Amino acid sequence: MDILKIRPYRLLCLICSFGDNSCSPRDEGLEQILEKIREFPSRPVMLVCNAGDMFSYQDPGNKEDTLKGSDFDRLRDLEILHKLDLMPGAILPARLLLFRIFEQIRTSGGICGYEDTATGKWIGCEKAKRESYEKALKNVLAGNPDCYRDFYKLLKDGKRSIFIERKEEELDEEKKKSLEEMFKAEEISVRPHILLCAVEQYAEGLNPPFENDNLPEMIQHIIKNPGQKIKLVKGADWMICAPCPVRDTKLNACCLAVKGGGGLSNQLRDLRLLKALGLKFGDSMKAKDLYKLIFDRVKTTNEICTFEGIYPSVWQERCAADNLKWTKEAKENELYKKGRLMLMEAFGIK
What we know:
Layout (H helix, E strand, L loop, with lengths): L3 E3 L1 H13 L7 H12 L4 E4 L22 H15 L6 E3 H11 L21 H4 L2 H9 L7 H9 L11 H17 L2 E4 L3 H11 L10 H10 L4 E4 L5 H4 L5 E2 L4 E2 L7 H16 L6 E3 H11 L4 H4 L12 H11 L5 H14 L3
């Protein structure tokens, strides 16, 4: 998998270009970056910067320096890395990196443009004066919602994005095909932790048809067919996640939550749940027996879904923040608690 090496300031220029021209960048180099990211939004991006010293191994040289000078471009590269809490040479998936930028950098002021220009040697960029970057975040790009599903809703409402969303027709067809396969399957393939998500959805009264995944359909199916086998698998499995607008189809990866990088925290949730249940990937059980085991051993989501760390973090998102809060307050996830009791009754589990 090719790693795309980019100077940090170029990513701000990419966003800024949408403030001047909402369709696409006019700069050929930025257009190439945009094409590569749109081709594969999870493409690994390395942030390279002329930092020197112990980071000289990744210095890109001065080929991309602008007419403002190498010091100006190096300054803004380092300012951006500082705001992102990343080091030169850091590698992140493009979608996760851009969401981090949306979150942490709300203005190009102080990075690409300055008020104190007494010497005339640090004039900055004209686009910073025009607030093109801010216009892009506010008026053109979808910005940075808490959940990627909210991001997708903004796209459907007509907002532009650096990423190209999956087409409605494709999602509708994937929904239809995956449900057909699920209903006739000897084993339904499910990644472990979303069995807990399904409990919360059930408590919310979320019923089929559901647009973004097949969990409500699965729950209704296994309530009627408690002997249906469920196989615990890795990744954003097609049978359940096929219609998700932010499923990475190339990697079978989840890009929901954590500003597009939800797969990492979801993997840890999967493994925590497997450990709690005494199971491993590939294990298969009857649905009723599996949920009985879950309800016996997982009374609360706190131990499965809590992540405690610094922010911004590739581990932190709304669900994790809620569970951390409940853990610290010695409380429980009331939605899971309610759904657990409701499903125990539906399955006849005592």
